Automatic annotation (TrEMBL):
It is a multi-pass membrane protein. Keywords: Cell membrane, Membrane, Transmembrane, Transmembrane helix, Transport. This is Thiamine/thiamine pyrophosphate ABC transporter permease ThiP. Coiled coil: none annotated. It comes from Leisingera aquaemixtae. It is found in: Cell membrane. Residues 49-253, 321-508 form the ABC transmembrane type-1 domain. The keyword NAD does not apply.
Length: 518
């Protein structure tokens, strides 16, 4: 569609793309200029680098390793509420990190359910803080993602391949060698790269479950240099290192090719004749039950622990909740103001520039961008007074890559279907946007807005850099309550945050789809 006239101008989208690129590249440039190359890295910085790579590698291996049997079981079995379970696999993505951590503590912590069970047999309680705690939390967040990615690979094997294997009387080993093994060699490296890239940007998990200097990630070292030492030069150096790591990991994750698959089939329902034995059924049931319990028990723990404390929350918690709602609302408005015109520009033939700007957020962590913004703002204004708008802005930029993936395909479909007709009716510009583009983008807009609101509501990144003692969002307030060992109040606040974030996602997503369900 690059050479075809379009009823919507690409200029607003190009302008939005330039703003996003200027924000990200400008903050990265500020970090690079502020870095004092002569100082070099200390022993603690290299230790943070080693720990970051170690925990990311272990988290990726465990997440994908556990996802393979879980995805295989879901691919082979049909049972009631299967689609609901698969849908629930997406919940940890929008679950606030601090809420999940409290749930994990309630189940796996020293005073948690598992430790209480072990105590009944005279065994020592579980120690969750340190490397194993960080890895546990990352597996909780990324096991569902890895399972979805690998399950998609299984579902892409045509039913005819399984029918042919059954006609040839291929056993389980032959089925693995001919179909499942080649599929995993094609899909698993990409899943490993994606999970590894995500785990490199580990701030909130390391902040709460690290347990000391030996479990410090690079992002946590940036925060410590910034907040405790106010050493902007060291923070800038560490930010540059973090940028190189996340940029390289994101590039590998994007470049790892899925390769050629098994070709197209006739879209027949897949029947798995290789998984009918009692042993196969038992193993599949075990992996499905284990995955479901691992994901749902922490959520249940949050609900049970938070109910007694939610009605007795202090005014400071409700004020923090109000701040979180303001940040999420502002972040959602900024995101839509950027993403909708950028999606239209990409659909109108300017995909290269707009989509490149849209994915820049994958290469830079929010803490690095926050550090750059602080360096730029500090000489001319009080950065702590701008905590709310800065947090909302960075959250919007971080959600932009996901919003573009949601909006761009639908925008191309709308322009392809209605573009010529609108031009023949002389309906262009704002008239086309108001009458055709926005109404037919409503479902995708609602989904993107709900995702942005939920992610911003639960963010504990940039706000930790900019917030002063008199300002806090709800995730930051929960962290402060945990630091003061007020765990009942923290659990109540976590339940409130869970309801707010999930409620915001549900309201906005359903609001975008109401017209289709009426």
């Amino acid at each position: 569609m690059a050479g075809r006239a379009q009823p919507v101008s690409a200029l607003p989208g190009i302008g939005a793309a330039f703003l996003v690129a200027a924000l990200i590249l400008g903050t990265l440039g500020a970090v690079a200029l502020r870095a004092e190359a002569g100082t070099g890295f200390g022993a603690s910085d290299w230790a943070a680098l080693r720990f970051t790579l170690t925990q990311a590698g272990l988290s990726a291996l465990l997440s994908v390793g556990l996802a393979i049997p879980a995805a295989r079981a879901l691919a082979r079995r049909r049972f009631p509420r299967r689609s609901l379970l698969i849908a629930l696999l997406g919940a940890p993505f929008i679950l606030p990190v601090i809420v999940a951590i409290l749930g994990l503590l309630a189940v796996f912590g020293r005073a948690g359910w598992l430790s209480s069970l072990l105590g009944m047999f005279g065994l020592e309680p579980v120690q969750i803080y340190g490397l194993h705690g960080v890895v546990l939390a990352h597996v909780f967040f990324n096991l569902p993602l890895a399972t979805r990615l690998i399950l998609q690979g299984w579902q892409e094997i045509p039913a005819e391949r399984f029918r042919l294997a059954a006609q040839l009387d291929a056993g389980p080993l032959a089925m693995w060698r001919l179909l499942e093994g080649p599929m995993l060699r094609r899909v698993a490296p990409g899943a490993l790269a994606v999970v590894f890239a995500i785990c490199l940007s580990s701030f909130a998990v390391a902040l709460t479950l690290g347990g000391g200097p030996k479990a410090t990630t690079i992002e946590l070292a940036i925060y410590q240099a910034f907040r405790f030492d106010f050493d902007l030069g060291r923070a800038a150096l560490l930010s540059g290192l973090q940028l190189l790591l996340t940029g390289a990991a994101a590039l590998v994750a994007l470049r790892v090719s899925a390769g050629e698959g098994f070709g197209a089939g006739l879209d027949r329902a897949v029947r798995r004749w290789d998984g009918q034995s009692a042993l196969a059924r038992s193993l599949d049931g075990f992996w499905i039950a284990l995955s479901a319990a691992f994901l749902l028990l922490p959520l249940a723990a949050i609900v049970l622990a938070g109910l007694p404390g939610i009605l007795s929350l202090k005014a400071s918690v409700w004020q923090a909740a109000g701040n979180s709602i303001l940040v999420a609302a502002l972040s959602t408005v900024i995101l839509l103001g950027l993403a909708l015109p950028m999606a239209a520009a990409a659909a109108a033939g300017r995909a290269g520039l707009t989509e490149l700007s849209g994915i820049l957020g994958l290469a830079a962590s929010p803490l690095v961008i926050g550090t750059g913004l602080f360096i730029l703002i500090y000489p001319i204004a009080d950065p702590f007074a701008l905590a709310l708008p800065v947090t909302a802005l960075v959250n919007a930029v971080m959600a932009l890559p996901f919003a573009m993936r949601i909006l761009v395909p639908r925008a191309r479909e709308v322009l392809g279907r209605y573009g010529r007709l609108s031009l023949s009716l002389d309906m262009q510009g704002w008239a086309f946007v108001r009458r055709v583009y926005l109404p037919r983008m409503r479902a995708q807009t609602g989904f993107a807005a709900g995702l942005a609101a939920a992610l911003s509501m639960g963010d504990l990144g940039v706000v930790a850099l900019f917030a002063d003692p008199d300002f806090a969002t709800l995730p930051l307030q929960i962290y402060r309550l945990m630091g003061a060992y007020r765990m009942e109040a923290a659990a109540g606040a976590a339940l409130l945050l869970l309801m707010l974030s999930m409620g915001a996602f549900w309201i906005l997503d359903r609001g975008g789809r109401w017209h289709a369900e009426a």
